[in-house]
Amino acid sequence: MRIKAVKLENFRGYENETKIELTDLNVIVGKNDIGKSTVLEALDIFFNENKGVIKIDKDDINKACKENGNTEVKISVIFEELPETLTIDATNPTTLDSEYLLKSDGTLEILKKYPNAGKEKVFIKANHPTNPSCSDLLLKKNSDLKKLLTEDIECEDKTKNATIRKAIWNHFSADLQQREIEIEIAKFDAKNTWEQLKKHMPLFTLFQSDRKNSDGDSEVQNPMKLAVQEILKDVELRENLDKVAEQVEKKLIEVSNKTLEKLNEMNTEIADSLTPNIPSPESLKWVDVFKSVSITGDEDIPINKRGSGVKRLILLNFFRAEAERRQREINVPSIIYAIEEPETSQHPNHQRKLIEAFIELSKADNTQIILTTHSPAIVKMLDFEHLQLIKDGAGKEIINIERSNLPYPSLNEVNYLAFGESDDEYHNELYGFIESEEMLNDFKNGKETMLYRKQWRGQIREQQVVLSEYIRHQIHHPENTENNRFTYEQLQQSIGEMRNYINDNIEQ
Question: What pLDDT shows up at residue 215?
Answer without folding.
Answer: 38
